[in-house]
Amino acid sequence: MNKVVANADDAVRDIPSGATLMLGGFGLCGIPENCIASLVKQGTKDLTCISNNAGVDGFGIGLLLENKQVKKMISSYVGENAEFERQLLSGELEVELVPQGTLATRCMATGYGMPAVFLQAGYGTEVAEGKEVREFNGKNYLMEMAFDSDYAIVKAWKGDKMGNLIFKDTARNFNPLMAMAGKITIAEVEELVEPGELDPNHIHTPGIYVHRIFQGTSYEKRIEQRTVRQRK
Q1: What b-and-e string marks burial along 97-115, b requiring 16 or more CB atoms within 10 Å of the CB?
Q2: Which InterPro entries match (predicted)?
Q3: What is the pLDDT along the chain (232 residues), one digit of tens a residue?
Q4: How far apart are CA 102 and CA 4, in angstroms?
Q5: What is the CB-side half-sphere exposure of residue 68 using CA atoms within 13 A?
Q6: Does pTM top 0.85 for this prediction?
Q7: Would residue 186 be called left, alpha or beta, if left means φ above 0 and alpha means ψ between -120 and 50 degrees?
């Protein structure tokens, strides 16, 4: 199976309007910049986006929001995006806020083929509304459903043409979990190498999970919040 595609445009070419996407990254670290830019250019509409965050104004998923391409956002943190806030308050955007650990575990459950998991996070809060509660060993747990994701779009530091991936530092948070969970997983990498060039002991995502891979270009790697101390 030839998994290598020419570029981001080719990788996302068949993502239809109305699709459910997982987008890897943590804040602005390790986000699939090239694929997001291609989705903006492609104009795919009514997307349900599952992501740790909603990007920022003018970058990341923020670009899809500004272009009115997102119908629903499922995230654990959305505090850096004014356009997200505007669309939420105006009723233009459907939002599901999920505790961060729950978001990660639901991604993992999808990858492992588990239909649901039981978690304590959110019990007794608005997060629990409409969800089944079960008691185990005297403690109450919420039943959280695994995600149903059409595509997972991730960004890795290095990958080989078989789809094996290595993530770097903070980018390792959500990318490996989401790479397991997509019916079709698309990986963009900073460096694409031949099979056998990656140390098997350092691979975070085996190629069996990856369906398309390409070497990305022109990564901005923005810093979400830059803080410097004042000079004396």
Answers
A1: ebbbebbbbbbbbbbeeee
A2: 3-oxoacid_CoA-transf_A, CoA_trans_fam_I, NagB/RpiA_transferase-like
A3: 789 999 999 999 999 999 999 999 998 899 999 999 999 999 999 999 999 988 899 899 999 999 999 999 999 988 778 899 999 999 999 999 999 999 999 999 999 999 999 999 999 998 899 999 999 999 999 999 999 999 999 999 999 999 999 999 999 999 999 999 999 999 999 999 999 999 999 999 999 999 999 999 999 888 777 778 888 7
A4: 33
A5: 2
A6: yes
A7: beta
Task: Provide the token pair at 3.
Answer: 């998994």
Q: Give the pairing of strands 133-136 and 116-119.
A: unpaired
Length of the chain: 232
**Residue appearing with tokens 């349900």:** 48
**Domains of the chain, each with CATH number or no CATH:** 8-112+147-215 (3.40.1080.10)
